[in-house]
Amino acid sequence: MKNIIGVSKTKKKHHVAIIGGGFTGIAAAYELASKGIRVTVLEKEKEIGGLSSGFLLNGTPLEKFYHFWFTGDRHILNLAQELDIRDKITGSRGRTGIYYDGNIYRFSSPLDLLKFTPLNFLDRVKLGVQVLKSHVINSWEELDPVTIKEWFSRIGGDEIYRVVWSPLLEGKFGKFAPEISAAWLWNKFERRGKSRNGGGVEKYFYYEGGFPAFLDEVAAKIKKYGGEIRTGSPVISIEVEDGEVSSVRTQNDLIKTDAVIMTAALPIIANIVEPHVRSEYVESLRRIKFLANICLILELEKNLSDIFWLNINDPGYNFVGVIEHTNFISPEIYGGRHIVYLTKYLDETDRFYKMEDIEIKEIFISDLKKIFKDLRDEMILNSYVFRSRYAQPVAVRNYSKMIPSIRTPIKGLYISTMAQIYPEDRGTNSPVRDGRKVAREVISDLINGNKTSPLL
To answer: Dihedral sign, CA of 126, 132, 134, 138?
Structure first.
């Protein structure tokens, strides 16, 4: 008798619990459910999506934290094709820029680079050459132990690092900035390079109705296949019998499982597995540091500029980027209102992270007026503040040696998180790829009766 995927030889239908309803967890659930595996997604928040979750702005879904797709994000685009919703994906040009020494400079094309006068002509050429050379690097692993500063020092690019990269790294990674791996930046060059057309113009993609609407489509398919998604269901603990995960305990009930996929942040996973594994393993999960993020979203009556993504390279500002969402997506979608994100990365112990929303708004808007001097209070129609505790893994040198395996010391327990996609950075494409990948590993193990871990 043939063995049907998801059904054992004893006719028992396997059950997999997934902790976390972000893109990784939802992608894993889709893969499992489509193959006949019973799946239950447990998400602590009231909605799925994680960093891609949204809210309704005048009746239209909008991400709490800015998102878009690059041209080379084939895994998410292929999933849209499978769901027959690729026609809802639109592409548009997205201009980028740098704010430096009180001036805004375009930074979208090779010609823009040549016009970037804060660097002398030779350094502009060096930067262009460095970017071009990065595209022919055969293995990013050679850059893993090298810091970004060291990478640019090799070409005599100390001034390039000081003007272009140091302010951005300090704004994003704070005290960790000097140790960030060059492999992380290399991947940025790769992704952006693939989103340029023959003329060097960058093109990005967005889903009609926003990323929350895309997730709703995937969730609907999961439910159609018999899967279950429970929101507002924080996981308290897991149960382990004879070294094998047997169930997941939430605030409301105990869920029996044959396997568990954990997609939450590594520190959360460490807390859950700590009672069941050696301290060395827990410490390895906690070794990777995370930064928090604050996003202020503004509704404006008009746009600030024609730039989609403006990096802030001047010191003294409380945000590292100004993202004018409606310079990429038509403001007509939002009733003619212009949407701007202001983003700040910081340690969760930073006093700024604990400020009241009204204080954050006042500080951010005050800084924004210094850059865009025509901005007046009456132009700001509404504002929203969102926080994320685990927004950015800190990719220091030799980060690849810190990444945990998807298999854990507990049989039947797997982890797949944004901290494991290095050298790639946060986004939705890699989580879809890795969520489906871990799901296929689980299916193979369930069918073959192999849930042992190489860590044991």
So the answer is: negative
Q: Is residue 96 part of a domain?
A: no
CA dihedral 235, 237, 241, 246 (to 10 degrees): 0
Contact call for residues 311 and 320 (beta carbons, < 8 A): yes
Based on the domain organization, do 148 and 216 belong to the same domain? no
What local confidence, expressed as pLDDT, does residue 426 receive?
Answer: 83
What the block records as the tokens of 333 is 């979608």
Separation between Cα atoms, residue 56 and residue 189, nearest integer Å: 33
Sheet containing 259-262: order of strands: 228-231, 38-43, 15-19, 259-262, 413-415
Q: How many CA atoms lie within 13 A of 110 on its CB side?
A: 13
Bridge partners, 91 (sequence order): 205
Q: Apex CA 268: angle with CA 266 and CA 273, to 5°?
A: 90
Output the domain CATH number for residue 120: 1.10.3110
Task: Give the contacts of 208 (CB within 8 A, at least 6 positions apart).
Answer: 88, 89, 90
CB 34 within 8 A of CB 57: no
* Beta strand pairing call for 244-250 and 235-241: antiparallel
Tell how strand 244-250 and strand 60-63 pair up.
unpaired
CA distance 290 to 101: 30
282-286-292 Cα angle (round to 5) = 150
pLDDT (tens digit per residue) in 336-363: 999 999 999 999 999 999 999 999 999 9
- Is residue 390 included in any domain, yes or no? no
Instruction: Determine the Cα–Cα distance for residues 58 and 12; give it in Å rounded to an integer.
Output: 47
Look up residue 73 and give its two tokens.
């994000």
Q: Which of 201, 229, 254 is the last residue of a domain?
A: 201
Do residues 224 and 30 touch, judged by C-beta distance below 8 A? Answer: no
Q: Which amino acid is at 202?
A: E
Angle between helices 23-34 and 429-448 in degrees, nearest 10: 40
Task: Give the pLDDT confidence of 57-105 residue by residue, as tens digits.
Answer: 988 889 999 888 888 888 999 999 999 999 998 888 888 999 999 999 9
How many Å apart are CA 250 and CA 238, to the nearest integer? 9
Q: Which helix (H) or strand (E) holds 344?
A: strand 338-346
Q: Which residues sit opposite 89 in a β-bridge?
A: 207
Nearest Cα residue to 178 out of 190, 162, 159: 162
Specify burial of residue 214 (Cβ count, 10 A radius: 0-12, 13-18, 19+).
buried
What are the beta bridge partners of residue 321?
A: 311, 343
Q: Which amino acid is at 218?
A: V
Tell me the residue range of the domain where 227 lies.
15-86+208-287+402-448
Per the domain annotation, does 428 fall within a domain? yes
Taking the CA atoms of the chain, what radius of gyration do you get in angstroms? 23
Q: Are residues 217 and 192 in the same domain?
A: no
